[in-house]
Write a structure and sequence with these properties.
Layout lengths: L2 H29 L2 E9 L2 E5 L5 E6 L2 E2 L10 H16 L7 E9 L4 E6 L5 H7 L4 E2 L2 H4 L9 H5 L1 H8 L16 H20 L10
Parallel strand pairs: 3-6
Antiparallel strand pairs: 1-2, 1-5, 2-3, 4-7, 5-6
Length: about 210
């Protein structure tokens, strides 16, 4: 066997090993949850690294993220909202931290995933804190946190549009100013009538009444 043949055989063996390695990684992700490092969120896709070679892009199961462009065409407002929105999500699924991910469905270019930590499924947590819209029967039963979400506080009108829930954050109405002079003038005839009943019909005549 010459060197060329040895090289081809070695290369073929290496390629086969890599293929098997990736297949095994896919099977593991499909069958049970694995530990993965979260790197970033791109639109509605969450990027996780299982190891140095394997990356798992995930669409989160059971939820849908807000699309602010459905509610406003203001580019500056859209940019401001999206930055703030991502920061709120990162409070729960933080880049640089390890999470458990599991999936039983491939979407072709990404996985449909559940993301969790030691105590809870974070897909559900995002729904609880009004950071995502529930899309399944199970997720629609989740009770929302009683406190207003940060998005509702900062963008009440957009939140109402996106979530379909009426925001309780409203601009406070200015108290109506009472015109004391006008009120007195309106009440003066009534006062004169009452006094005339008590003191006679001539009451007030000296004052030009």
């Amino acid at each position: 066997m010459n060197l060329c043949a040895i090289f081809k055989q070695s290369f073929k063996g290496c390629a086969t090993f890599v293929s098997i390695f990736f297949i095994l990684q896919i099977q593991v992700l499909a069958k049970e949850r694995v530990v993965a490092l979260f790197t970033e969120k791109i639109d509605d896709t969450f990027i996780f690294k299982i190891n140095i070679l394997k990356t798992a892009p995930c669409k989160l199961y059971g939820i849908e993220f807000y699309d602010v462009e459905k509610c406003t065409k203001d580019k500056k407002l859209i940019e401001e909202f999206n930055i703030f929105y991502k920061d709120q999500i990162y409070k729960f699924i933080k880049p640089g931290q390890n999470f458990y991910i599991s999936s039983n469905k491939s979407l072709g270019d990404r996985w449909l995933c559940k993301v969790s930590n030691e105590s809870k499924i974070l897909n559900k947590t995002l729904v609880k804190y009004s950071l995502a819209i529930p899309k399944t029967k199970e997720y629609k039963k989740i009770k929302f946190d009683k406190k207003k979400s940060e998005i509702e506080k900062k963008f009440p009108k957009i939140f109402e549009c996106l979530s379909g829930k009426k925001s309780e954050t409203k601009e406070q109405e200015k108290p109506k100013e009472i015109n004391s002079t006008k009120t007195l003038e309106e009440e003066k005839p009534k006062i004169i009538i009452e006094f005339r009943k008590q003191f006679g019909e001539d009451f007030g005549r000296d004052f030009g009444e």
